[in-house]
Amino acid sequence: MSKFSNEAKELLEFIGGKENVAAVSHCVTRMRFVLNDDAKADVDKIKNIKSVKGTFTQAGQFQVIIGNEVSTFYNEFVKISGVDGVSKDEAKKSARQNMSLLQRMISHLGEIFAPLIPAIVVGGLILGFRNVIGDIKLLQDGTKALTEVSQFWAGVHHFLWLIGEAIFFFLPVGITWSISKKMGTTQILGIVLGLTLVSPQLLNAYAVAGGAEAPVWDFGFTQIKMIGYQAQVIPAILAGFTLANLEIRLKKIVPGYISMILVPFLSLVPTVLLAHTVLGPIGWKIGSVISSVVYAGLTSAFGWLFAAVFGFGYAPLVITGLHHMTTAIDLQLISEIGGTNLWPMIALSNIAQGSAVWAMVYLNKNDEEEKQVSIPAAISCYLGVTEPAMFGINLKYVYPFLAAMIGSAIAGVISVGGGVLANSVGVGGIPGILSIQPQHMFTFFLAMVAAVGIPFGLTVFFNKKNITFTKK
């Protein structure tokens, strides 16, 4: 008998039995259920199972947090229940039957960027390191950067741009590939499409916006401007979905014996043409409007209010999955204005959630079992991963979650009020300071102090005053 046998039986019972499970899969730390009737799941009893760290519903899936041994627990659950496990992709497809149109759109957006996150994080770290050695005047009484006094570090600074440029400048290639992968279409066509958006022969759209005259493809009866969409998100998304949907439809009507020849040709060529005549210009305009609105809101006289609302509400956005939208907005802001004032607030929210957990560690310092969950969760928060802390600790007790939201809001106001901009999206939490533009690092540090101190202090205060925000 497995050590999880009894707990797996309990979970099956409390989830509503085998007949209530439409699909089940698992990821790194969670069991993911698509239930026929969510109301049949007894959440309180499930949370009382010893191995369960917490539960939540997101993207049409009822998710049960198990931790690092989730694969062992999952195997035992499948064995006991007789429910056939499915892949995460199949579970997501099944889950969409329970989603609204907006939820499905957010789910798609999240699935596009999820495979790109490792590269974006690496790119953020690299640009952050280049910040430190190339832009901060640390030497000779604060007059010179490391690259100005050392040829070695100057060479490192120059070399690292090769990777940073590949990740961010050529981001459309990753986006169109990710869409083709997600949609189950030909991935190499997605890559080729992305390359046609960033080809060196194309004039950068930013140069065109600055007044440069773009060369043209001259067809005699008409001309098409040779404009590239380097670092652009929305043109790549529009083009990627157009290619994938066109390929899917063509496969249904083109006879199999000529499909290998006609489908790639009739999918790719029209999509590239549309990308450079319709989708690219429209996507560029949409992206410019979105970034302008967000930037104007954060730099206006009411920017502090926008910052407070975003800082307070970002953690709940993570629960709903809506936070996936912020990656696209961040990248658009970086490409449009050379930095993002949104990303620093996300990093501060990570820190705030972790600080609330540290307060719970302090309050439960004699509870060894609680500390085994809380300490790793707090550390992961400070490194930008908030899920274990939010679902395993803060939401469980409620008042630490609220304390973290308040701290995040105040830290966000400090950040936006000080005009803090990040050069890139990178690792969240404390390492996020590496992504901050050098002239704003001190202000961001002050915001970090607020994100640490306020949630910690409020969590302890709420506990001591028995203010738990839960029904007695």
From TrEMBL:
Keyword ATP-binding: no
Membrane topology note: Multi-pass membrane protein
GO cellular component, one term: plasma membrane
Catalytic-site annotation from UniProt: 27
GO molecular function, one term: kinase activity
GO terms for biological process, alphabetical: phosphoenolpyruvate-dependent sugar phosphotransferase system
CDD domains on file: PTS_IIB_glc
Subcellular location: Cell membrane
Keyword flag NAD: no
Principal cellular location given in the protein's record: membrane
Keyword terms, alphabetized: Cell membrane, Kinase, Membrane, Phosphotransferase system, Sugar transport, Transferase, Transmembrane, Transmembrane helix, Transport
Residue ranges occupied by any PTS EIIB type-1 domain in the UniProt entry: 5-87
TM spans (from-to): 112-133, 153-176, 188-207, 227-246, 258-282, 302-322, 398-422, 442-462
Domain PTS EIIC type-1: 107-472
Xref: PANTHER family: PHOSPHOTRANSFERASE SYSTEM TRANSPORT PROTEIN (PTHR30175), PTS SYSTEM TREHALOSE-SPECIFIC EIIBC COMPONENT (PTHR30175:SF4)
Cited NCBIfam families: EIIB_glc (TIGR00826), PRK11007.1 (NF008236), PTS-IIBC-Tre (TIGR01992)
The protein's name in its UniProt record: PTS trehalose transporter subunit IIBC
Lineage: Bacteria, Bacillati, Bacillota, Clostridia, Peptostreptococcales
